[in-house]
Amino acid sequence: MVAPKGRRGRVVLIDAHSLIYRAFFALPPMSTSDGQVTNAAYGFTSMLAIVLASRPEYAVAAFDVAAPTWRSKEYVEYKAGRRAMPDDLRPQIEMVRDILAGFQIPIHGIAGFEADDLIGTFSRLAEERGHSVTIVSGDLDCLQLVSESVEALVPRRGITDTFLYVPEQVSQRYGVEPVKLHDCTAAPSTTADNSPAVPAGGTRTAGAGASAPGQGPWRSRW
Question: 1, 42, 142, 147: which has the highest count of C-beta atoms within 10 A?
Answer without folding.
Answer: 142
